[in-house]
Write a structure and sequence with these properties.
53% of the residues lie in helices and 16% in strands. The N terminus and C terminus are likely disordered. The protein has 831 residues and is an alpha/beta fold. This is GGDEF domain-containing protein.
């Protein structure tokens, strides 16, 4: 028999059709609900859904457990009465033959029945809203006790009973099994435990009877019990699913009621209705408030004409009205300025015929003013820099794209501030923000008609020049920008200085897209900053080639490190007087199998850009320390990037490499540049002192070319000052250069530092260096950088043959007569 639940839409022989997706845990596929309904559910999934209430801790599961136990509680008096009556019949059937076991059994049945009745009586006046899994487990325990009692009755008294008594016992036990299993179906574990405990006792009874016919009876009993168990589990799943659907329906009804009540009380929308002439026939206070018309005068308003007189966007509405076509969410702006409001209108014609002959219209006005204002604000923010009020990157790119679509030519000036980080670090970010606002104002003052000034982010600005006949050429504008932004900025008592570099890129038919235009301007800007800042560069194709070369080098770096393509070369440093070798400077060289020899001036910046400078630095330190072990008492100097020194683990890395190579720390000299002091002086000072405490010597390289101050020289633990080669080259020609170097040497001597003259290439330069009492010299006059194997020959006084860093006639073995000291004087007998 098929039972149809009209309210919930289900049949007894199929899964519930009204259960929502969130509770229908059957597998889903791409064909949607239809496929979902026909696709068979896995056995494991059915088992999981059958017993899920025994563990689920959510509120809805607790409510379902309460409903199930409430239904079972209503049946408890009948079930316990049936148990007691059946127990009495068992006593009649067994009689005196039952003995003490029968008394004990009856007592057990009575106690279990009384326990169930007591629970029903104590809870009859109240209904629990939620029940925990513990309540389910108590029900299972009670069912197990009853099942054990009836299984025990069959096991104890079926076999010894007479035929008529056997029929009575079998009938009672079977009836209790079937009735109890289905009564307990909402508690599936209770039903299963109850059923199979009775089955177990019955199988013992049949075994004890020891008659062949009972083998078939046992098979039938197992089959019936299996069917009963699966049916009970199916009922449990259906009952749970129906309760979930009922709760969902109740929640949905509650939500709908709340929404309707809230709409009636607080809605910003208004319903309206007109006759065929457009006069309002439905007049509500909400509509009067929206239109700003007294409610008693609404009947005089002809709605189409009212919209036309108050909105310049009413054309689509009037057209739809005239054609009798329904419309939906048609947006209108009513009024202008700060008093403007935005409405969304939806309406359809009403009457016998929908169309031009309709008798009227019915619709709704939704006030979307707040949402529209928010959208307008978002649109403004999306295209405007919040700090300066200039156009942002998106607006600038959109303008350039629009110009390209129209085939218009123009120029893009990419403007980057110089030394802006110093402003932030010294005066704070609020002062930095004010500087950016001042810069924005100056750029706007320079802009001409057709120019769009924007801020791309950080301290980078741009000017897109699309004017038909600009008064200033692009290069002239770039020069004015640099000049204007170089002027000091007064912020209260502070007088701040920033400069600017400019990259120019032409917008014309050769530009494929806006991204290419931006890249070209950035490449020109990068070249301007690299070549000294405070200048402008116009993009040329050669810059693109340089960029591609830079990208190629960066790509090859990681592969080169992995394949061991890097090697240290060593350039000797000698005593300025005796020309005795005191140490060497380790210089990294890269011979790529395809790109050939790549200059350190190219791959070191590339390594810093792509984050490989730390790996490269560790490799240089390892190879240099291995060489120091072979060179005995000669010190080995290694150049260190500021990025390496800023690494918190740099000092411990140096210590670990020295320990691994077995080299005394005093033999390792680390050379840093003056730019380090502009990055993070306190952190740099801390790490340099840690290196000195470790025993490593620290040299300041290229001294005189940066922005060092005497205060830095006093604070930083430098052991050596290396005088830049630009000063050394000028020693023989310019007296002022000689005076500067002489001052540097004397200052270093006062501060307890040694001096090294770099780039000594002639004996005249060597003579001047000796005259001003510089301690050491380094340069092509002594030797070019060379591999370690050739350095050993050079130290031993043997001729150096083969390629040694572009070897030429200036490579001089120590047997040459160009220098004024013999090899034995310079190196002793150790080499």
């Amino acid at each position: 028999m098929r039972m149809r639940g009209i309210r919930h839409g289900w049949r007894s022989d199929m899964a519930p059709t009204a259960i929502p997706d969130r509770y229908d845990r059957r597998p889903k596929n791409a064909e949607g609900l239809g496929a979902q309904m026909t696709r068979p559910e896995g056995f494991g999934e059915r088992l999981r859904r059958t017993f899920e209430l025994y563990a689920a801790a959510d509120v809805e599961s607790a409510r379902i457990r309460a409903e199930h136990l409430a239904q079972l509680s209503r049946l408890t008096p009948l079930l316990m009465a049936a148990n007691l009556i059946s127990a009495g019949l068992i006593c009649v059937a067994v009689g005196a033959a039952g003995g003490a076991w029968l008394v004990a059994w009856v007592v057990a049945i009575v106690l279990v029945a009384l326990f169930g009745l007591w629970g029903w009586w104590s809870g009859r006046g109240r209904v629990a809203a939620k029940v925990s899994p513990k309540g389910y487990r108590r029900g299972t325990l009670h069912a197990a006790l009853l099942g054990a009692c009836w299984g025990g009755a069959a096991a104890l008294w079926f076999a010894p009973a007479a035929a008529s008594e056997r029929v009575l016992i079998a009938t009672l036990v079977t009836g209790m099994l079937g009735a109890g299993a289905f009564a307990l179906a909402m508690l599936p574990w209770a039903s299963l435990v109850y059923t199979w405990l009775i089955v177990a006792g019955s199988l013992v009874a049949l075994w004890r009877a020891n008659e062949p016919i009972f083998v078939a009876v046992a098979v039938l009993l197992l089959s019936y019990a299996t069917v009963v168990s699966f049916a009970a589990m199916g009922l449990a799943r259906q009952s749970t699913a129906l309760l979930r659907a009922r709760f969902l329906h109740a929640r949905q009804q509650q939500v709908v009621s709340l929404l309707l009540r809230d709409f009636e009380e607080n809605a910003s929308d208004a319903l309206w209705e007109t006759d065929a002439g457009g006069h309002l026939v439905h007049r509500s206070p909400r509509l009067a408030g929206l239109m700003g018309v007294p409610q008693e005068q609404l009947g005089e308003v002809k709605l189409p004409q009212w919209f036309a007189s108050r909105s310049h966007e009413a054309g689509p509405l009037l057209a739809a009205w005239a054609l009798g076509k329904p419309f939906r969410d048609l947006k209108l702006q009513i009024g202008r300025g700060e008093q403007a409001r935005w409405w969304a209108l939806s309406a359809k014609p009403i009457g016998p015929v929908e169309g031009a002959g309709g008798t009227g219209w019915r619709g709704v006005i939704a006030d979307i003013t707040d949402a529209q204002r928010f959208e307008n604000q978002l649109r403004l923010q999306a295209e405007q820099d919040p700090l300066t009020g200039l156009a942002n990157r998106r607006a600038l790119m959109n303008a350039a794209q629009a110009a390209m679509s129209l085939g218009r030519a123009g120029w893009l000036l990419s403007i980057d501030l110089d030394h802006f980080k110093v402003v932030n670090d010294s005066s704070g970010h609020s002062a930095g923000d004010e500087v950016l606002r001042v810069v924005a104002g100056r750029l706007l003052a320079l802009a001409e008609e057709g120019d769009l000034v924007g801020r791309l982010g950080g301290d980078e600005f741009a000017m897109l020049r699309l004017g038909q006949a600009p008064a200033r050429a692009p290069q002239v504008m770039a020069a004015l920008v640099i000049e204007r932004l170089s002027e000091p900025i007064e912020l209260g008592p502070k007088r701040l200085h920033v400069g600017a570099s400019v990259g120019l890129a032409r917008l014309d038919a050769s530009i494929a897209n806006v991204e290419d235009l931006m890249v070209n301007a950035d490449l020109a800007l990068y070249d301007a900053k690299r070549s000294g800042r405070g200048r402008s560069v116009v993009y040329a194709s050669s810059l693109g080639a340089a960029s591609r070369r830079m990208h190629t080098v960066e790509q090859a770096l990681r592969e080169g490190l992995a394949q061991g393509q890097f090697e240290l070369h060593f350039q000797p440093k000698v005593d300025a007087r005796s020309l005795q070798a005191l140490g060497v400077e380790a210089l990294m060289r890269w011979e790529h199998p395809v790109l050939g020899s790549i200059s350190p001036g190219e791959f070191i910046p590339a390594a810093e850009r792509c984050g490989l400078i730390h790996e490269l630095g560790v490799l240089a330190l390892q190879q240099a320390c291995q060489a120091a072990r072979e060179l005995r008492e000669l010190n080995v100097a290694v150049n260190v990037s500021p990025l390496q020194l800023m690494d918190p683990g740099f000092v411990s890395s140096v210590e670990r490499i020295l320990r691994g190579a077995g080299v005394a720390p005093r033999l390792l000299h680390l050379e840093v540049t003056e730019s380090l002091m502009l990055e993070d002086a306190p952190a740099a000072l801390k790490r340099l002192h840690a290196l000195r405490e470790l025993g490593v010597q620290v040299a300041l390289d290229d001294f005189g070319t940066g922005f060092s101050s005497l205060a830095y020289l006093r604070a930083f633990p430098f052991h050596t000052l290396k005088i830049d080669r630009s000063f050394v080259r000028s020693l023989t020609e310019h007296a002022d250069a000689r005076a500067i170097v002489n001052t540097i040497v004397k200052m270093a001597r006062v501060l307890g530092m040694r001096t090294v003259a770099e780039g000594v290439e002639s004996e005249r330069e060597l003579a001047v260096v000796r005259a001003i009492q510089c301690d050491e010299v380094q340069g092509y006059l002594v030797a070019r950088p060379m591999p370690l194997t050739k350095l050993r020959d050079w130290l031993a006084g043997r001729p150096v043959t083969g390629p040694v860093d572009e070897v030429d006639s200036r490579i001089m073995p120590w047997r040459s007569t160009h220098l004024s000291a013999p090899p034995t004087t310079m190196f002793g007998t150790d080499f």
